[in-house]
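Journal club prep — side note

Before the paper discussion, L.F. wants everyone to see what a predicted structure for a comparable chain looks like in token form. Sequence:
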Amino acid sequence: MRIEVSHTQPRVDEHMFIVGDRDRWSEPLSKLSFEDDIFFSHDAGLVLYSSATSFYADLSLEVYDSEPGPGVENDQIDARRETSARFDSGEITVRDLNGLEYDTLALPTEGRWNIRLIVRGRERAEERARDEYFFYGEEEWTIQLWPGE
């Protein structure tokens, strides 16, 4: 069952923004290496890789008490990935590369959380970014979190 949801629009610079532990949010940047075209996972959080840059993505953070169902059908999304991270502070923050905080969400417990990333609208954002800067929307991210082991 979903127990918390938050919506925000973080600025995407250099194709990236960060979702991580409140106290350790910059750690993923120290070892940045994209082996996936969607995200870089680090024990303290994620660096999300957008198809465009210099715009504001739509982001929904959803916290569940157990693993949620798949939700959106695969043919309606650009990518779906799963990973995990530790949120030892018990809070998750959304930040741009300059460290500007867009949202903080308190988790029911600290520790390891499973993470499912769902993204859509990548092609629309990439096309719009060819002619426009600092627009809002187009690329939509959903991050589902539920307690890990």
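L.F.'s comment for the group: Residues 24 and 121 are 29 Å apart (CA to CA). Keep this in mind when we get to the figures.
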